[in-house]
Recover the amino acids of this structure.
């Protein structure tokens, strides 16, 4: 059996197991007793930005980018005792990008389209385009900050009873309908050929809860179509008591490169994170944390990489709002050690302000253009944000960020002499979120 057939066999086997489990649950328990309900939700989210060093340090004498983007969504959810279905249309645009008199079709997409069969009081099966968001979204997240968001075309078995939750997901992707072969090009599609994962969470007590994730990805090389897989496994611990809330995570990653001729053949990497929140009073909450994602030395000649890939998480919420790390923009694979602290102040029920400071270091050796090992310090960033709730369906949010890049950050970002970075690296944004939810029938 070749690798292509193994991918199909693995996916079909997992699907069969899920289906068998579903049928067993269906026979063993009664159906859920949900009432019939039709809900319409509308979202209009324009956001104005002034980018002066987002993603990578901006060069001297370069003008900042200023624009307004908008996300418009129209979602419909129908529930009854036997099934739930949801369809969510989405349109993304930049203000001014289309003529006043429309000539062509707009970029309307299908963000969500799934149906969920209620198999019992504690289990269901969901099929279609859906969002995967687990734990604090380090590995699988909705990526809601991005106007487009993130979705998957997959099947999901959901089980929840008492303090225990279990989700089993599987996906198999193709570019289009095929007559022969199962080759897949991920350049403009989902970033994997197939995926299988198991996620479980157990609430031990009112203070403690634990979750675990095991994921397998199959990727296919775009040119020689060779297949390889990568596994990610991890555990999370959650603690809440009185004024303290803490989260600890550890993930390990291994696998192989999709290209047979690549210099790097395999991966052996890990990630560890710890975050502690302290509620000083009803208005002030302070935060202290550290994230470590292993990386590869820039002068390494090993055929194995130690660079951890956080995959499909919501990276914007972790590694600084200016998105210099893990948001589709590489930093030479040197990993990251992010130490941060901050505070959130709720002035009123409707108004809050937040501050966060990040100090970034490379997790592996940084090497300059002459082959010398230089400082691992990548720079510092401060993020200020505010939130004002106009009413239950309307919110105004915004922020200002300032980055102080180090010489090492310029190296890992590929900025070399005679290029000079601007002394001001900043970002300003403001967004109005209008999100009413209308119960049409209940």
């Amino acid at each position: 059996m070749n690798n292509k057939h193994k991918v199909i066999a693995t996916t079909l086997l997992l699907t069969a197991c899920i289906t068998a489990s579903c049928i067993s649950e269906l026979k063993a328990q009664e159906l859920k007793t949900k009432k019939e309900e039709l809900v319409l939700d509308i979202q209009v989210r324009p956001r104005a930005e002034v980018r002066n060093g987002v993603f990578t340090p901006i060069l001297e004498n370069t003008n900042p980018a200023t624009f307004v983007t908008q996300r418009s969504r129209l979602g419909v959810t129908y529930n009854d005792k036997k099934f739930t279905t949801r369809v969510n249309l989405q349109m993304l645009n930049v203000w001014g990008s289309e003529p006043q008199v429309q000539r062509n079709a707009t970029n309307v997409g299908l963000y969500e389209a799934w149906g969920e069969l209620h198999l019992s009081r504690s289990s269901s099966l969901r099929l279609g385009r859906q969002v995967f968001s687990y734990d604090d979204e380090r590995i699988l997240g909705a990526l809601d900050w991005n106007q487009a968001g993130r979705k998957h075309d997959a099947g999901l078995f959901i089980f929840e009873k008492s303090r225990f939750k279990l989700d089993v997901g599987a996906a198999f992707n193709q570019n289009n309908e095929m007559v022969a072969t199962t080759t897949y090009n991920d350049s403009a599609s989902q970033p994997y050929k197939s995926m299988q994962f198991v996620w479980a969470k157990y609430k031990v007590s009112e203070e403690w809860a634990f979750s675990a994730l095991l994921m397998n990805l199959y990727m296919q090389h775009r040119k020689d179509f060779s297949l390889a897989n990568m596994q990610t496994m991890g555990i999370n611990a959650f603690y809440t008591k009185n004024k303290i809330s803490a989260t600890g995570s550890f993930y390990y990653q291994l696998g192989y490169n999709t290209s047979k001729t690549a210099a790097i053949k395999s991966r052996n990497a890990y990630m560890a994170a710890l975050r502690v929140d302290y509620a000083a009073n009803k208005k002030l909450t302070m935060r202290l944390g550290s994230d470590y994602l292993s990386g590869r030395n820039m002068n390494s000649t090993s055929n194995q990489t130690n660079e951890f890939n956080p995959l499909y998480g919501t990276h914007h919420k972790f590694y600084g709002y200016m998105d210099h790390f893990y948001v589709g923009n590489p930093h030479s694979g040197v990993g990251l050690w992010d130490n941060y602290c901050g505070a959130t102040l709720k002035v009123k029920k409707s108004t809050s302000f937040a501050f966060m400071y990040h100090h970034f270091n490379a997790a592996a050796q940084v090497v300059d253009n002459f082959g010398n090992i230089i400082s691992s310090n990548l720079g510092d960033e401060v993020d200020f944000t505010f939130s004002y709730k106009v009413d239950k369906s309307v919110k105004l949010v915004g922020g200002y960020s300032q980055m102080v890049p180090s010489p090492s950050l310029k190296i890992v970002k590929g900025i070399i002499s005679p290029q000079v970075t601007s002394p001001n690296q900043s970002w300003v944004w403001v967004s109005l979120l209008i999100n009413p939810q209308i119960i049409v029938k209940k």
Q: What stands out?
A: The longest helix spans residues 3-28. The CA atoms of residues 207 and 241 lie 6 Å apart.
